[in-house]
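Q: I'm building a small set of examples for a reading group on sequence design. Run inverse folding on the following structure and report the sequence directly after it, with nothing in between.
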């Protein structure tokens, strides 16, 4: 699967499944990644200490395994978006957007690379390109690029309709940890205030034809939203998956003690 195929799958209501890498390094176990059944992987450059070369290594490995390689950039800025795309990313998660101008900036970088400067500003804000041939060329060149914007604050919730209405946004991302903290209910993902906020994002995205991504940390957290129809499934991380699997195995083995 590539980015264009992933977008097409989401438009038809097909579910895609992925996870986030925060600790894994390329090495001799790389070949196992392609056997898991992942459709996409987001390599975290916001909170994890991946270097540019390590990120580029993962982009090549994931792409060769038939997995759509994505990057969560440190901040919603074109500089980081273009670096990730140059490294081979086919998807960008731009975290913590709160202003339309931020969304326009990452849309320009993700969807119209390598257009720059005033020409890029006109393309993003007015839809004016140097020529029709240029527009077609840029759309074809960037057809695989998936853009996700992070809705992780009360300010983003207040401007949600404007943010997801910017042409070029493929999906909105709910970061449960950050959003719950801003809502005053840290890590309480069953609190009515948190659920009401995510309901609002869900309904708005559906109305705008934008996919919704929620970072799920448990089966119990994921099940109700999948049953409601979310198709872009981001579950756990490499660190959480290894830890949870090992704990389950050890708990089972200890249960066999006489």
């Amino acid at each position: 699967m590539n980015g264009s195929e992933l977008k097409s799958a989401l438009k038809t209501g097909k579910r895609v499944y992925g996870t986030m890498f925060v600790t894994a390094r390329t090495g001799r176990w790389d070949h196992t990644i392609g056997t898991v059944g992942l459709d996409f992987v987001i390599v975290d450059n916001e909170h994890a200490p991946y270097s540019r070369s390590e990120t580029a290594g993962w982009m090549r490995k994931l792409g060769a395994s038939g997995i759509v390689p994505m990057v969560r950039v440190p901040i919603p800025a074109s500089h980081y978006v273009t670096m990730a795309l140059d490294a081979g990313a086919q998807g960008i998660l731009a975290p913590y957007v709160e202003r339309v101008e931020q969304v326009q900036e990452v849309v320009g970088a993700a969807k119209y690379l390598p257009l720059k400067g005033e020409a890029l500003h006109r393309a993003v804000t007015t839809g004016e390109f140097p020529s029709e041939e240029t527009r077609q060329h840029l759309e074809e060149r960037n057809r695989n690029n998936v853009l996700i914007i992070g809705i992780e604050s009360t300010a983003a919730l207040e401007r949600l309709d404007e943010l997801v209405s910017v042409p070029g946004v493929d999906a909105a991302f709910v970061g449960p940890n950050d959003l719950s903290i801003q809502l005053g209910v840290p890590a309480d993902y069953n609190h009515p205030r948190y659920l009401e906020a995510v309901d609002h994002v869900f309904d708005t995205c559906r109305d705008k034809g934008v996919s919704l991504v929620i970072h799920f940390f448990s089966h119990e957290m994921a099940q109700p939203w999948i049953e409601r129809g979310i198709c872009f499934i981001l579950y756990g991380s490499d660190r959480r998956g290894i830890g949870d699997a090992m704990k389950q195995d050890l708990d089972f083995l200890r249960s066999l003690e006489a």
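The CA atoms of residues 205 and 211 lie 6 Å apart.
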